[in-house]
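Example record for the data management plan.
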Amino acid sequence: MDDIHRVPDLFSDLRGIIDCGRRKGIRAGRFLVLGSASVDLLRQSGETLAGRIAYVEMGPLDILEVDPGTDALVRLWVRGGYPDSFLARSGTVSLKFRQHFIRTYLERDVASFGPRLPPASLERLWTMLAHSQGAVLNTCGLSRALGTSPQTVTRYIDVLSGLLLVRRLPPFRANVGKRLVKSPRVYVRDSGLVHALLSIGDFGALSGHPVVGRSWEGFVIENLLAAAPERTLASHYRTAAGAEADLVLDFPDGSRWVVEANRSLAPTLTKGFLNARRDLRPERSFLAYPGHERYRKSSEVEVIGLRELATEVAGVEAQLD
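Corresponding structural encoding:
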């Protein structure tokens, strides 16, 4: 059953069918229920199925699901992971698919959740978030630009987050004796949608665009979180003094990794990342870049390609099993 959020009354019917089947010894795996929203939004309609349903978040294609090689990586980064976009016969067709996808979401799917939101205002906010990809959330600044209230901006971002289109990466919260930035960073989750919102059609246009570094950062974060085991805590680290790490991964086994995304083929270590590493004392530290060679930048930091790093992150789950 696709787009289950459009017919929430089905949840109560499903409960009766499932309970009837259980009495006959028929248990798991009878129904596949699909919906274009987060677990939290679907759960609001699916409360009647408590104890009878398991939730699985399925994102777009990630780096471990496409063929290895530089061409596939660049294509996935530029076009994003929605299959029709990634597999389109040309970059032009891919871009048109994403632009239509954005319009359809704004005019149809967003209206399925919560109060009616003006599509034009929501598109402006979505585009502003793409321009400031990876920036610390500033609802006051966004509200001034949109001519609305910070509360309305928060509500809009809640909807986009609930629809799995935007990620709010929370700040690191443990006590490290430093003045920490306490606001989340906000990313448009699919890199292809970032580029469509900014009318970036190919890798050449992306390479010369101011968003390129932050686009790579968001692309790295989404692929690593797609590979991470369940119950992994993800955050960003930033202090008032300038120490900074793009991604902190606290795994269920208690280990901690820190990752800095760098799109250069000859990445360098920044003072901010080295200071963040000293504060956080992770077991492993990485610079994730678009290349394939793996080498040590220092005794504590490895330079590594995104596919290989995603494979390492996925391997943590295997160790837990």
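Summary line stored alongside the record: The first helix runs from residue 10 to 23.
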